[in-house]
Amino acid sequence: MTGSCTDADRERFLAVCREVTAAPQGEYSGGEEGIGVLREKRMHAAIKRFVCADSSYHEQRPVTLSDAASDGDEKKRKKAKKYVADVLCGDEIYEIQTGSFWPLKEKLGWYAANTDCHVTVVHPIAIKRRTIWIDPASGEAVPSPRLARAGRVADVLPETVYISELVASGRVSLLVLLIEAEEYRWRNGWGRDGKRGSERFEMLPTALADTVSLELPEDFRELLPAELNDTGFTAAGFAKAMKLRSRRSYLALRALENLGVVRVAGKKDRARVYEII
Asked: Which comes out higher in pLDDT, residue 150 or 24?
């Protein structure tokens, strides 16, 4: 696991955020036209431009292994190219995923089966996040006096389960962006303040703190607290040490098994006991 963010990276990210935030709604994708661009959120657009400033590399279809066998038949080539990459630079694909990794599972599997490309999944985690509450009636925006719970790199583990086998194969790696952000939410939920069950309007990035690459088993191993190294641990012990709720803890543990970071070492009563490899 490596953090390789430089001051120049932070300045460039800040400049992109300012440009994207200042642009009118729907006009912050750098003049791009393509699949999904019209529905693209500002967070996604900012990260894509940070990853690659040249928009000619955005929204591109990778060359497939079957292209060589099409013998110049343009119709066959178009049919073979099913997915569009967020960023395609040579044989490197960058997929920006701001939410769950589940929707990526089929797409990344297709890349692995049909191209020679390596894929980097770029995922932002907010280590500082302030909620801005919008009144649906007046449009008034009021910032919360307190910051939301800080995100951690380890928060990516439960989502990694959906693509863990591809990560283990070396065809896919993760790039986590540790960012600061402002989350705009409508006060349209229930309760006296309208906050519970409220709807998110948009999340805007404001700064980049660091970047962390997760490629090898040892990178993921570094995400585990030292207390798990001492002895075997159960799923319940893992959840407590990782400060994860039960389902997310289960997904994280499953991902680590698929990545070859932990394994079942035995049983204690009826609970499985795991150990770090």
From this structure: 150
- In this prediction, residue 35 carries a pLDDT of 47
Tell me which residue of 67, 87, 261 sits closest to 164, measured CA to CA: 261
Residue 201: Cβ within 10 Å count:
15
pTM of the model: 0.88
DSSP string, the chain: -EE---HHHHHHHHHHHHHHHHSPTT--STT--STTTTT--HHHHHHHHHH-S-GGGEEEPPPPGGGGGGTT-HHHHHHH----EEEEETTEEEEE-SS-STTHHHHHHHHHHH---EEEEEEEEEEEEEEEEE-TTT--EEEEEEEPPPP-GGGGHHHHTTTHHHHHHTSEEEEEEEEEEEEEEES-SBSTTS-BTPPEEEEEEEEEEEEEEE-SHHHHHTTS-THHHHS-B-HHHHHHHHT--HHHHHHHHHHHHHTTSEEEEEEETTEEEEEE-
Q: Output the six-digit token pair for 214.
A: 């997760």
